[in-house]
Amino acid sequence: MTAFLFTNGRVLDPRHEGVRDGMEVLVEDGTIREVSDRPIRGADAVHVDLGGRVLMPGLIDAHVHVVAAMADLAANAAQQSSLAALRAGRIMTAMLMRGFTTVRDVGGADWGLAEAQAAGVVAGPRLVISGKALSQTGGHCDMRARADDRAPSQHRVGAMGRLCDGVEAVRLAAREELRAGADFVKVMANGGIASPTDPIHMLQFSRAELLAAVEEAVNSGTYVSAHLYTDAAIRRAVECGVHSLEHCNLIALDTAALAAAAGCVAVPTLVTYERLAIEGESLGLRRDSVAKIETVRQAGLDSLAVMQAAGLPMAYGSDLLGEMHRHQSGEFALRARVLPAMDVLRSATTVAARLCRLEGRVGIIEPGADADLIVVDGNPLDDWTLLEGQGARIPAIMQAGRFVKQELG
Ligand SMILES: [Zn+2]
């Protein structure tokens, strides 16, 4: 049995307002055993003196693509699978070292990558996966340039999604991804930036196709997540039973209220548009993609206020590609310009845990939860940049009760 007793620190748990001083936390065999404001008896435990630092749950990013080693997604999809998998492993390790102990991959990562992490083959966040995202021909996962009429590369590790057209093909693709280990089904239901031939306003998949994907997901006890920007696309997706609404930059108040009433969760990903606008082109994003960024970037911060006003829960998402992955923790400070700090914290803990269907197990510090914990050199609620800098101010990271980083001295 391996036990650790955290003492002399402050605990930041999303279910309590602010940090709590004088708390002790006992971890045994990968699980949080006890949380108390009085000294915990833990004679056999290794004592970890936090020196007044903040102990908080490991972070959860609900929108990543760990296979996206390059911003040019056509080139990414064409890589040899062995190379793409090894690159994905490096991206995963860097995420873990930023304090993200769980991530939800919404297009690309397969069961093999999730299993590689679970088995300890690669250090990384626990992966909750959709497998390949489903896209129609000419949709957000169709990375072929207009003049390219070859069959797309869509089954390699570096491909984010696969093409399917028609109700029966959508059903089959959803069933294949679920059979192969997908935890939920991802569909591209609106135009996107990184794909070359679909404008942002384009509605993707017919209602019948969306309904088929939702039926297959629900039959398997899970849900559909959809890539969405425009209000019309979001409204249609909600009406078809989609649960997880990705991006939502152009959402209007009445649609946000409809989504909230339907129990949906939104996953804004503002940091990716910031970074794409600044460095996307120099990092390989194609010119036809660069032209689309501003359509969604300006509306991003306003969309947070709209969704907050409608009571639509928001999970943390970064959606970064290639070299831009290093900005994964930049979404916190962006959101904090508009949202209360505790809501920003909940987006990357309890709300994201719900989308990962790991509620009660991750994103909280309470007895019975998995011991996914990070130690921060200060209170992120007051200064979100403490979480930036590739984990420089996160001296300790524990995942499933094991330290993956311990520099507390
Ligand atoms: Zn994405």
Tell me about this structure.
By secondary structure, this protein is of the alpha/beta class. It has helices at residues 73-78, 81-97, 111-118, 167-179, 207-219, 231-239, 253-261, 270-280, 287-290, 293-310, 330-336, 341-347, 350-355; strands spanning 3-12, 19-28, 31-36, 46-49, 54-57, 59-64, 100-105, 126-129, 133-135, 161-163, 185-188, 224-230, 244-250, 265-267, 373-376, 396-399, 402-406. It contains 13 helices and 17 strands. Strands 1, 2, 3, 4, 5, 15, 16 and 17 form an 8-stranded mixed sheet that branches. It has a 4-stranded parallel sheet with strand order 11-12-13-14. Strands 6-7-8 form a 3-stranded parallel sheet. Strand 7, helix 3 (111-118) and strand 8 form a beta-alpha-beta unit. Helix 4 runs parallel beside helix 5, helix 6 (231-239) runs parallel beside helix 7 (253-261) and helix 7 packs across helix 10 (293-310). The mean pLDDT is 95. The structure holds zinc ion (ZN).
Helices and strands in order:
Layout: E1 3-12, E2 19-28, E3 31-36, E4 46-49, E5 54-57, E6 59-64, H1 73-78, H2 81-97, E7 100-105, H3 111-118, E8 126-129, E9 133-135, E10 161-163, H4 167-179, E11 185-188, H5 207-219, E12 224-230, H6 231-239, E13 244-250, H7 253-261, E14 265-267, H8 270-280, H9 287-290, H10 293-310, H11 330-336, H12 341-347, H13 350-355, E15 373-376, E16 396-399, E17 402-406
Parallel strand pairs: 1-4, 1-5, 6-7, 7-8, 9-10, 11-12, 12-13, 13-14
Antiparallel strand pairs: 1-2, 2-3, 5-15, 15-16, 16-17
Bound molecules: zinc ion.
